[in-house]
Amino acid sequence: MTAAKLSALITLIVATCFLPVLVAAQNYGYLKDAAVSYFDDADVAMMLETVDAALDEQQPHAIREWKNPGTGNSGKAEVLGTLKSAAGAPCKRLQVTNVAHNGVSGRTSHTFCKETDKWMVVPREAK
């Protein structure tokens, strides 16, 4: 095998090994511009507490809000509706809105089901 062919083969092997890693990393590139990328640990804790409070609320369309005066970041969790899983577990559709101190905002919706006293996100393909 010539040096040029060997070099091409090695390049192909290395590219094949690292391509899945590079593709996976690209899938999360959108997060660098998301509101949560500006959150500190306290903001994340407040956001998660708000999500839990909204999910635990008995009102069918509960809304819970949070704001960290130290960072200026804020957010909201809003129950959009309730349903049952195929196994009969209680589920809720939740919309979470986050706003960073610099005006960057984002909104996402997920379905959560309560399993063994804990709310779990339902993967999109499992619905």
3D architecture notes:
The protein is of the alpha+beta class and 127 residues long. It folds into 2 domains: 1-31; 34-126, no CATH class. It contains 2 helices and 5 strands, in the order ααβββββ. The longest helix is centred in the N-terminal third of the chain and has 25 residues, at 3-27. The radius of gyration is 21 Å and the shape is elongated. It starts with a helix and ends in a 6-residue tail after the last strand.
Question: Domains counted in the coordinates: how many?
Answer: 2
Radius of gyration: 21 Å
Helix content: 25-40%
* Sequence of strands across the biggest β-sheet: 1-2-3-4-5
- The tally of strands reads 5
Count of alpha/pi helices? 2
Shape: elongated
**Biggest beta sheet summary:** 5 strands, antiparallel
List low-pLDDT spans: 4-27
Sequence of secondary-structure elements: HHEEEEE
End-to-end separation: 53 Å
Write a short abstract of this structure:
This protein has 127 residues and is α+β, with helices and mostly antiparallel strands. Helices cover 32% and strands 32% of the residues.
Brief descriptors of the model:
5 strands, alpha+beta, 2 helices, single chain, 5-stranded antiparallel beta sheet, 127 residues, elongated
Topology:
Elements: H1 3-27, H2 41-56, E1 63-67, E2 74-84, E3 90-99, E4 105-115, E5 118-121
Antiparallel strand pairs: 1-2, 2-3, 3-4, 4-5
